[in-house]
């Protein structure tokens, strides 16, 4: 019989991981709205007073990432 280990992580509202996920999701949504065939691998890093959005994005769309982040 095979054993499987299941783990999960939960963070509360306002946690930097949640904020980072919301920003990445918003960037993805904005790009896909203009270019449904876009390829998006967006990562967001949050630290006090700073947000870094990066990754690989192949698209014909233009989105204002700074505006989305704010």
From TrEMBL:
Keyword Signal: no
InterPro entries named in the record: S-AdoMet_synt_N, S-AdoMet_synthetase, S-AdoMet_synthetase_sfam
GO-annotated molecular function: ATP binding; metal ion binding; methionine adenosyltransferase activity
GO biological process, one term: S-adenosylmethionine biosynthetic process
Alphabetical keyword list: Metal-binding, Transferase
Pfam families: S-AdoMet_synt_N
SUPFAM superfamilies membership: S-adenosylmethionine synthetase
Domain S-adenosylmethionine synthetase N-terminal, first and last residues per copy: 4-70
Protein's name in the database: Methionine adenosyltransferase
Naturally occurring in which organism (per UniProt): Escherichia coli
């Amino acid at each position: 019989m095979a054993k499987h280990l299941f783990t999960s992580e939960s963070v509360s509202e306002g946690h930097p991981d949640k904020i980072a996920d919301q920003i990445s999701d918003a960037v993805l949504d904005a790009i896909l709205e203009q270019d449904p065939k876009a390829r998006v691998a967006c990562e967001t890093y949050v630290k006090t007073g700073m947000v870094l959005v990066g990754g690989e994005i192949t698209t014909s769309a233009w989105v204002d990432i700074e505006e989305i982040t704010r």
